[in-house]
């Protein structure tokens, strides 16, 4: 959209104009920046109640005017400035948003307090939030593109989904699977405390160690965030002891006795 440039105020070169929405309404409080051909910032200001702006220019040349405002996509335009004021208007398109609900995959109950991270195609985190009481989350004013939405919460396995944001607000619900845990206590017969350090290992069906931890002074150990399946718990201080344990959704208790 073009319009009549703001009349010059005083002498000297300057760039003036209006910032409006795609519907023609003035965008109040938009940040307007002027940079030279080398990318150096020359001037900066904000639009008034009518969406108008005015920026001083140090001299003749070609410049780039950039306008940005919350809930809008930034816009830029090139302007050639001579000895008199130059006029350039900018139109800001509404930015898209992303929102949804985090739920338990097994019960459908909303998950409150889940950490929700949003990363762009480069893997750079562009936003983070915690889900609300209803499991809701939202990100506003997103440029169009492909994003990765990563969600994690205590007692659940983390989840990540790809989301494409275009020209409308996108809804993306996320389901978190219950995380399985194995926890218990290692005891040693006929050996006074304090016991020597006890190493507890968790092996999968192939016999590969997938987790390893040390029991605390009371012999307690725990492995969190496990895929359901069959594991072997190995506790060792001197002679190791092996026990098979089946892990399903939720928490599994398994005690180990040494000696």
UniProtKB/TrEMBL annotation:
Keyword Signal: yes
Gene3D superfamilies listed in its UniProt record: Carboxypeptidase-like, regulatory domain (2.60.40.1120)
InterPro entries in the cross-refs: Carb-bd-like_fold (IPR013784), CarboxyPept-like_regulatory (IPR008969)
Keywords associated with the record: Secreted, Signal
Family: Belongs to the serine-aspartate repeat-containing protein (SDr) family.
Protein name per UniProt: Uncharacterized protein YfaS (Alpha-2-macroglobulin family)
């Amino acid at each position: 959209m073009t319009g009549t440039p703001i009349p010059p105020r005083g002498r000297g070169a300057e760039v003036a104009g209006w910032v409006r929405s795609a519907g023609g309404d003035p965008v109040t409080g938009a940040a307007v920046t002027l940079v030279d051909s080398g990318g150096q910032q020359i001037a900066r200001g904000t639009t008034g109640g009518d969406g108008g702006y005015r920026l001083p220019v140090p001299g003749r040349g070609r410049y780039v005017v950039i306008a940005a405002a919350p809930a809008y996509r930034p816009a830029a335009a090139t302007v050639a400035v001579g000895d008199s004021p130059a006029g350039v208007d900018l139109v800001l398109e509404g930015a898209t948003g992303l929102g949804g609900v985090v739920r338990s995959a097994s019960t459908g109950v909303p998950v409150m307090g889940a950490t929700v991270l949003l990363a762009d195609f480069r893997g750079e985190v562009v936003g983070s939030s915690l889900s609300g009481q209803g499991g809701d989350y939202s990100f506003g004013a997103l440029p169009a593109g492909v994003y990765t939405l990563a969600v994690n919460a205590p007692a659940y396995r983390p989840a990540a989904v790809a989301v494409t944001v275009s020209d409308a607000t996108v809804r993306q619900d996320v389901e978190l699977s219950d995380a399985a845990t194995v926890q218990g206590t290692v005891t040693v017969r006929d050996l006074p405390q304090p016991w020597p350090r006890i190493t507890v290992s968790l092996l999968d069906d192939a016999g590969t160690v997938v987790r390893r931890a040390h029991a605390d002074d009371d012999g307690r150990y725990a492995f969190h965030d496990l895929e359901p399946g069959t594991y072997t718990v190995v506790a060792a201080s001197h002679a190791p002891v092996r026990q098979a344990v089946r892990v399903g959704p939720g928490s599994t208790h398994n005690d180990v006795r040494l000696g």
